[in-house]
Amino acid sequence: MPVWFQAGLWGLLAGGALVLGALIAWFVHVPRSVVATVMAFGSGVLISALAFDLVAEAESTGGLRPTLIGFLGGAAVYVAANVALARRGARHRKRSQDQQPSESEQSGSGTAIAIGALLDGVPESIVLGLTLLAGQGVGIPVLAAVFISNLPEGLSSAAGMKRAGRSATYVFGVWCGIATLSGTAGALGVLVLTGASPALIAVITAIAAGAILAMVADTMIPEAFEQTHLYAGLVATIGFALSFALEHTG
């Protein structure tokens, strides 16, 4: 099976966690405290994967300076895009209560939320695909981190969309579309970068990692803290520790 096709399948699987979370939120009432706890746990898992599987690997391959430039650049680009989308109604796209505006309250907010969800998911899929270029199969810690974090993201955001009066067609259209585009992004990342120098791959990995960390801080941690409060740090630490253990016992 071609590597690019494998990357597409893994990206689709990771994106499918968003659809699964949305399905749960649409048909089952999940307490906000549970969603927030899983969100905090997913944040810790993602941060661990970023630190040990992505940024550290990028630095060892491409050097410190290119890694830092790429990492900071990825975060800056993500934040700039996020600020633009927030002004159009996507600020609270991962919130589960009444923070999301309805279309009548802010015209165009539905499109902004959908684009924001895509903005959050694409960097994760790209780095999943890049882990395959080493020739040792998909990076399991990274895959686990993305899947675990996507589940509460889809759950929380879909609950907020439902409260804002958005239809099932819109909600599941968004998440199925994001899952499909996540798979496409993973496949395209491999196709474009196959044969690229290790230094270039390291920089691209660092850019994606910077965007993911900015996403965690801007969208996941606020939702987690709002309900779990002082316990959010502990739950995130547990997620970090388990991901670290997975990396070092695999």
Question: Would you list the SSEs in sequence order as H and E?
Answer: HHHHHHHH
Q: From the alpha-carbon coordinates, what is the Rg to the nearest angstrom?
A: 17 Å
Secondary-structure content class:
mainly alpha
Report the strand count.
0
Backbone shape: globular
Poorly predicted runs = none
Q: Kindly, what is the distance between the CA atoms of the first and last residues, rounded to a whole number of angstroms? A: 24 Å
Total number of helices: 8
Biggest beta sheet attributes: none
Q: Provide mean pLDDT, rounded.
A: 81
Helix content: over 70%
Strand content: under 5%
Describe this entry's structure for a reader:
- The chain is an all-alpha fold.
- Helix content is 82%, strand content 0%.
- Helix 2 (32-62) crosses helix 8.
- The longest helix is centred in the first third of the chain and has 31 residues, at 32-62.
- The chain starts with a helix and ends with a helix.
Quick synopsis:
This protein is mainly alpha-helical. It has 8 helices and no strands.
Main attributes of the structure:
250 residues, mainly alpha
Topology, element by element:
Blueprint: H1 3-27, H2 32-62, H3 64-90, H4 109-132, H5 140-163, H6 168-193, H7 198-228, H8 232-249
Helix pairs in contact: 1-4, 1-5, 1-6, 2-3, 2-5, 2-7, 2-8, 3-4, 3-7, 4-5, 4-6, 4-7, 5-8
